[in-house]
Write a structure and sequence with these properties.
Elements (H helix, E strand, L loop, with lengths): L1 E5 L6 H4 L4 E13 L6 E6 L8 E4 L3 E8 L7 E4 L24 E7 L5 E7 L11 E6 L13 E10 L4 H9 L9 E4 L20 E4 L4 E8 L5 E6 L4 E6 L2 E8 L1 E4 L4 E7 L8 E8 L11 E7 L21 H7 L27 E13 L2 E6 L2 E3 L6 H6 L20 E3 L3 E4 L3 E8 L5 E5 L4 E8 L17 E2 L1 E4 L3 E8 L4 E7 L2 H5 L3 E7 L24
Parallel strand pairs: 2-5, 4-9, 10-13, 12-20, 21-26, 23-24, 25-33
Antiparallel strand pairs: 1-2, 2-3, 5-7, 6-8, 8-9, 10-11, 13-18, 14-17, 14-19, 15-16, 15-18, 19-20, 21-22, 26-31, 27-30, 27-32, 28-29, 28-31, 32-33
């Protein structure tokens, strides 16, 4: 990977207080890998799978030149990066024209007022199922201390379900209503399972080894970058001290394992306090998956102390009871915001007293399993399956192209047949909005909102009613960008629409997203404070004649 740091006006009073720039050149291409012992094409970045980590600091400017050496158009999106006033860098179909095969395009964005653990991935055409993902680490500025002792090291782990079929085969099956079925395995950092059991794991599969020193404490950043499977993460004989999720410092508490749902990111402090009589298992196992042989669906890596006396052995640490449907929800409710910690700014996170703000608008979003609409398999939010237009929404808005989308997404489920449409939520600038996700599907779904961190204030089984508000956490509900919604349950979030632009609200589960379970939120500042159209904008659809 070619990367280098460039500081503006260096050698003069700390660059005259300018925020530094960091530059990357990335080529996305197919490379051959065998994560589960079978050769297949995966998407690599500069020949790496997973891709490189963007390691930056609050307020830095990031410039990434992306060359598309795939055989189809692509975009990269920066999951959780808020792109303040700059929708143009978001990298989804509603904001950017795709980067054609053989072309390159340069992203330039600032990680303004953010800290924490995030990741990037290709956002089009089911491509994330083939890789192309990597981590984003945003460090605190030196003037703002961490709410814990500085760790001795920083380790990123990507956990994911994995299919041997290509992303192109998978999306064809989704289109025909076949469904994904159970994955072929679980990967950790793009590698298959350690051969912990010869009857389950065949020899010759490469696995991840995490090397550590005894007595040291490491920060582990764990991202579920998979297709559609919730995963339980745990380390044999070690506690996971949760300290941060998706840019928010949390109340610090120990877990023996944690369910991490699709698109979610967490960071833990893990102290190497064992006697190292052997190596230890790092495990990611699926949750809520119907499979005749779930033992083969376990990702296993090795935690290796420098003074280890032998390989990991014995049974894997136990997962939660699959029959305990309340375990995962109770665990999710236990994750709280650290209201006294500073983060990107020195004032405590809890200075924003979200529970005291009056809600100005409410949206109740119902999903359903995939269904036939106009002869095609589609998924919906509130009875609408999103149709991506050939002209991105943001470009249509900027250049006043009529008829591309409608600002008519309903506040609640309408009594009408499901339809395919380009319907967008008409958000009001600086409105405080309550969104309830009601999951009528049979699987856990994750939902993500670009451009913002929202407050997760409640979740429960059953149908949400107005009486459900009495259960809301209005003090220290965690602020994040991706939340899970359990089957037959609801999750409520609150979000302050202070970031103008057009922002993607989507299912993170790729099968649901690909078939139309998304919309956008349009937020217009009357004072027009957004950044201008980039000079290197790619034009498509109705604006194709503008392309140079």
């Amino acid at each position: 990977m070619l990367s280098y740091y460039c500081y503006l006006l260096c050698f003069t009073t700390l660059c005259l207080a300018e925020d530094p720039y960091v530059y990357f050149d990335w080529t996305l291409s197919y490379i051959t890998a065998s994560p589960l012992g079978v050769k297949q094409q995966v998407i690599g970045i500069n020949g790496q799978f997973p891709g490189p980590i963007l390691n930056v600091t609050t307020n830095w400017n990031v410039v990434v030149n992306v060359k598309n050496d795939l055989d189809e158009p692509m975009l990269l999106t920066w999951n959780g990066i808020q792109q303040r006033k700059d929708t143009w860098q978001d990298g989804v179909s509603g904001t950017n024209c795709p980067i054609p095969a053989g072309w390159n395009w340069t992203y330039e964005f600032q990680v303004k007022d953010q800290i924490g653990s995030f990741f990037y991935f290709p956002s089009l055409s089911f491509q994330r199922a083939a890789g192309g993902y990597g981590g984003i680490t945003i460090n605190n500025r030196n003037v703002i201390p961490l709410p814990f002792a500085t760790p001795d090291g920083d380790i990123t782990l990507f956990i994911s379900d994995w299919f041997i079929k290509s992303h192109k085969e998978l999306r064809k099956e989704i289109e025909t209503g076949v469904g994904l079925g159970a994955p072929d395995g679980i990967l950790i950092n793009g590698l298959g399972p350690y051969h912990y059991d010869n009857a389950v794991v065949s020899g010759g599969i490469a696995y991840q080894t995490v090397n550590v020193e005894p007595g040291k404490t490491y920060r582990l950043r764990v991202h579920n970058v998979g297709v559609s499977t919730s995963l339980n993460f745990r380390i044999q004989s070690h506690n996971l001290l949760l300290v941060e999720t998706e840019g928010s410092y949390t109340v610090q508490q120990n877990y023996t394992s944690l369910d991490i749902h699709v698109g979610q990111s967490y960071s833990f402090l893990v102290t190497m306090d064992q006697n190292a009589s052997s190596d230890y298992y790092i495990v990611a196992s699926p949750r809520f998956v119907n499979s005749s042989d779930s033992s083969k669906l376990v990702g296993v890596s090795v935690l290796h102390y420098s003074n280890s006396q032998g390989p990991a052995s014995g049974p894997l640490p136990d997962p939660p009871m699959e029959s305990d449907t309340f375990f995962s929800m109770s665990q999710a409710r236990s994750i709280r915001w650290n209201v006294s910690a500073g983060a990107a700014r020195p004032n405590p996170q809890g200075s924003f007293k979200y529970g005291e703000i009056t809600v100005t608008d409410v949206f109740i979003l119902h999903n359903r399993p995939a269904e036939l609409i106009e002869g095609k398999w589609r998924t919906t939010l509130s009875g609408i399956s999103y149709l991506a237009p050939s002209t991105p929404l943001k470009l249509a808005e900027q250049f006043n192209i009529p008829g591309v989308f409608k600002l008519d997404f309903p506040n609640k489920m309408m009594n009408r047949p499901a339809k395919v449409d380009t319907s967008v939520i008409n958000g009001t600038y600086k409105a405080f909005v309550e969104i309830i996700f009601q999951n009528n599907d049979t699987t856990v779904q994750s939902y993500h909102l670009d451009g913002y961190a929202f407050f997760v204030v409640g979740m429960d089984y059953g149908l949400w009613t107005e009486n459900s508000r009495s259960t809301y956490n209005k003090w220290d509900g965690v602020a994040r960008c991706t939340t899970q919604v359990f089957p037959g349950a609801w999750t409520a979030i609150l979000v302050f629409l202070d970031n103008p632009g057009i922002w993607n609200l989507r299912a993170q589960n790729l099968d649901s997203w690909y078939l139309g379970q998304e919309t956008y939120v349009s937020v217009v500042n009357p004072e027009n404070s957004e950044l201008p159209v980039p000079a290197n904008t790619i034009f498509c659809g109705a604006l194709s004649p503008l392309q140079k």
